Amino acid sequence: MRLRVLDFGIVPALRSQAVYHGIAETITAESDPVLSLASPETPYVCVGIHQEVAKEVDEEYCASAGLPVYRRHVGGGAVYLDRNQLFTHFIYPRKKAPEFAVNLYPLFIEPVVRTYRELGVDAQYRPINDIQVKGRKIGGTGAASIGEATLLVGSFMFDFDTETMARCLKVPSEKFRDKLRQSLTDYMTTMKKELAEVPSREHIKARFLAHCADVLGVEVVEDKPSDAELAAIARAETALADPAWTHLQGKKLVELGVKIAAGTHLTESTYKAPGGLIRVHLLGRHGQIENLMISGDFTCLPPDGVDRLAARLAGAPLQLELLTEAIEDVVGELTLQTPGVSAFDMATAIMAAVEHSD
């Protein structure tokens, strides 16, 4: 099996996200898998598909600093991105990739880990989807499905601006921001921190492609994007730049609030599962779910599965055991994949919102 490598180099910020969104839309069952590589020319903030921008990002600061905010079609959290990262996007026809999301991570992370180790960085895969060096994070990954494609996105970290990252995020106080800044500095590492000399992009790319060939059992072929792929990337740029898409979750929250009636309470909760943060907005009425919005930085495949799950839970009893069973049933019927997030985790997050209404 061939692996087409499309190296876009240094590209405008929006295009660094649009390349894999667009290519994914062109994938068919017969397509060769694609590995796209890119780095953004200028910095920006990127939020996960299930996140609420207003809850996660200090939009006022980002506007004043000239940092655009984009929403991707991949789960995970808000992150500051710049040209000090080399983005890697594995884009596979669904039938040519592992069937379950939990199996995507170890497979596609392995070439990255091997590359780091060859460079002298003692990297290790840390389930569910992180890469660590002696307990410090040097990269995360995200899985998604777009059209007929399965994706695994990640990056190589040359350096990371923890100061700006801490400034971009929404926090309850400046004291908390100081703690966040220190936590990011302590917990994250990069090639600049780990190595006496940071290797060139070309050297990293060459070693990475060699490990991709070995681990994935593919013939690596460097290629150029087709006209159809370039057109799809351009369409993706337009879609990703749409403010309605960026603030999609906020729009859902407004619509949810409009539905409040007598005896119905809109409450909010957060719960940290192994697979990420779950944020719940709940309209509860007479001990049942009236309406529900679920957001957060976890992964769900397919991406619209979170909204479909929430819709199907209308009328479910607000009791932990019964709600867990209801979620298990819906997840099974919809064949959803939420690695690191169980039905019990979802139910616990929802019940935490019930407690907030007491």
From TrEMBL:
Record GO terms (molecular function): ATP binding; lipoate-protein ligase activity
Enzyme class: ligase
Keyword terms, alphabetized: ATP-binding, Ligase, Nucleotide-binding
Descriptive protein name: lipoate--protein ligase
Pathway: Protein modification; protein lipoylation via exogenous pathway; protein N(6)-(lipoyl)lysine from lipoate: step 2/2; Protein modification; protein lipoylation via exogenous pathway; protein N(6)-(lipoyl)lysine from lipoate: step 1/2
Taxonomy, superkingdom: Bacteria
Gene3D superfamilies: Bira Bifunctional Protein, Domain 2 (3.30.930.10), CO dehydrogenase flavoprotein, C-terminal domain (3.30.390.50)
CDD domains assigned to the protein according to its UniProt record, in alphabetical order: LplA
Organism field: Devosia nanyangense
Keyword Ligase recorded: yes
Catalyzed reaction equations: L-lysyl-[lipoyl-carrier protein] + (R)-lipoate + ATP = N(6)-[(R)-lipoyl]-L-lysyl-[lipoyl-carrier protein] + AMP + diphosphate + H(+)
GO biological process entries: protein lipoylation
Record carries keyword Nucleotide-binding: yes
InterPro entries, per database record: aa-tRNA-synth_II/BPL/LPL, BPL_LPL_catalytic, Lipoate_protein_ligase_C, Octanoyltrans_LipM/LipL
The EC number(s) this enzyme carries: 6.3.1.20
Domain BPL/LPL catalytic: 29-220
